[in-house]
């Protein structure tokens, strides 16, 4: 099968969406399918596979690391006429996603859209009142979805959200898969060695973009309370984003500046090594369709303490491989405290995390997406 994927978020940019697309591409290619990716051009970055097509792009006004593509319709049409894809799979409802939609309609091919992101939770980046922005995003999203042949959502919570905002097109729940072995085969010691963390200290890990939608300030406030009771605990924040300076100042004002490590952007292998050396994964984002970092952490054997919200609520089996809490500092801290005080419980949950993560293997993920493609082909006749 030939699959044309259109994405506004792709390498060398680093995000959960990028990792999801790369994982799917690799698994489909390994199974003998041809995957062609249409993405923004990044200065100095070259693809070596011969099946990635880049288009003129410029940095986004609100994020200089993220590039927005402007494909020429004639150029795009000529490429697709050569490839002759069997299905078009788009990963955004703007930019290249809309270009992909036009191409699918012109070619008469099935159009699949994966809803990776709940964009209304990112409305603070738009230069209009938030209530107006959220209403507009919902309307545009629903309109786009209803013009697709099928929408893939990583969780039932995301499916329910789309139905709530007026999506009537077919919806299929397919959790994004991960390469489990990439996170549980790392040698220990890298994180502690790089950041001079003592052997006896416990590490709380959070992997997330440092932006308001990820609720990192909540994590810092909870950690400040925990550090008053447990002197030998460190918080490691992996990621970068527009709030980094603000969050560093908050850590200092809370009196934990010397106990919080901001790693900045790391490679995928380095992130996997961070999981390997940590003791508990903490996550407070309320904007996730799935929260891919949660199953990644579980595949490294980390128990998870997370806020019960949207897709994350389906990634943790509460009381088994971690804990889900309300957006309440006392409740969140209580669960962290419980795991720090009870090593037997932490180890038990660690074993359950690793076992449960195998259900989200990348091979299963690709197989289910292929089923969606085939269903679409039958639907289109």
Question: How would you characterize this protein structure?
Answer:
The chain has helices spanning 16-30, 73-83, 96-107, 130-145, 156-164, 181-184, 190-194, 216-229, 244-253, 268-277, 293-299, 329-341, 343-357, 362-380, and strands at 2-6, 34-40, 52-55, 57-60, 63-69, 87-90, 111-114, 150-153, 171-173, 202-207, 233-238, 260-264, 280-283, 304-307, 322-325. With 381 residues, the protein is α/β, with parallel strands linked by helices. The protein has two domains: 2-177 and 361-380, 3-Layer(aba) Sandwich (Rossmann fold), CATH 3.40.50.2000; 181-359, Rossmann fold, CATH 3.40.50. The chain has a seven-stranded parallel β-sheet with strand order 3-2-1-6-7-8-9, sandwiched between helices. Helix 1 crosses helix 14. The model has no long low-confidence stretch (mean pLDDT 94).
Unreliable residue runs: none
C-alpha-based Rg, rounded? 21 Å
Number of helices: 14
Integer average pLDDT = 94
Q: Determine the CATH superfamily of the largest domain.
A: Glycogen Phosphorylase B
CATH top level of the largest domain is Alpha Beta
Helix content: 40-55%
Whole-number tally of structural domains: 2
How much β-strand is present in the residues? Answer: 15-25%
Total beta-strand segments: 15
Write the layout of secondary structure elements.
Elements lengths: L1 E5 L9 H15 L3 E7 L11 E4 L1 E4 L2 E7 L3 H11 L3 E4 L5 H12 L3 E4 L15 H16 L4 E4 L2 H9 L6 E3 L7 H4 L5 H5 L7 E6 L8 H14 L3 E6 L5 H10 L6 E5 L3 H10 L2 E4 L9 H7 L4 E4 L14 E4 L3 H13 L1 H15 L4 H19 L1
Parallel strand pairs: 1-2, 1-6, 2-3, 6-7, 7-8, 8-9, 10-11, 10-13, 11-12, 13-14, 14-15
Antiparallel strand pairs: 4-5
């Amino acid at each position: 099968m030939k699959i044309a994927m259109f994405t506004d978020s792709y390498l060398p940019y680093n995000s959960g969406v990028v990792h999801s697309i790369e994982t799917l591409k690799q698994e489909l290619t390994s199974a003998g399918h041809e995957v062609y990716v249409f993405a923004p051009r990044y200065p100095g970055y070259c693809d070596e596979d011969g099946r990635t097509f880049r288009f003129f792009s410029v940095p986004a006004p609100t994020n200089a690391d993220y590039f927005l593509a402007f494909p020429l319709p004639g150029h795009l049409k000529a490429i697709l006429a050569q490839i002759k894809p069997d299905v078009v799979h788009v990963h955004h409802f703007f930019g290249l996603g809309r270009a992909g939609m036009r191409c699918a309609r012109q070619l008469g091919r099935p159009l699949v859209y994966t809803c990776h992101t709940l964009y209304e939770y990112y409305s603070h980046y738009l230069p209009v009142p938030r209530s107006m922005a959220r209403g507009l995003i919902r309307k545009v999203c629903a309109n786009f979805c209803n013009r697709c042949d099928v929408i893939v959502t990583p969780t039932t919570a995301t499916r329910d959200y789309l139905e709530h905002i007026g999506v009537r097109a077919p919806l299929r729940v397919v959790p994004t898969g991960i390469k489990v072995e990439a996170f549980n085969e790392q040698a220990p010691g890298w994180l502690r060695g790089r950041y001079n963390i003592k052997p006896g200290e416990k590490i709380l890990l959070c992997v997330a973009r440092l932006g308001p939608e990820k609720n990192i300030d909540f994590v810092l406030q909870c950690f400040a309370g925990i550090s008053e009771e447990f002197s030998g605990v460190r918080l490691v924040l992996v990621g970068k984003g527009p709030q980094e300076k603000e969050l560093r100042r908050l850590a200092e004002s809370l009196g934990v500046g010397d106990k919080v490590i901001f790693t900045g952007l790391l490679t995928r292998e380095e992130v996997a090594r961070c999981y390997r050396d940590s003791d508990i994964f903490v996550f407070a984002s309320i904007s996730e369709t799935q929260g891919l970092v949660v199953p990644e952490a579980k595949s490294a054997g980390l128990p998870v303490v997370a806020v019960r919200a949207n897709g994350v609520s389906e990634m943790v089996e509460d009381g088994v491989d971690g804990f889900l809490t309300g957006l309440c500092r006392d409740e969140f801290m209580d669960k962290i405290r419980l795991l720090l005080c009870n090593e037997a419980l932490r180890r038990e949950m660690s074993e359950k995390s690793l076992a449960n993560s195998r259900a989200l293997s990348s091979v299963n993920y690709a197989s289910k997406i292929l089923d969606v493609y085939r269903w679409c082909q039958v639907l289109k006749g």
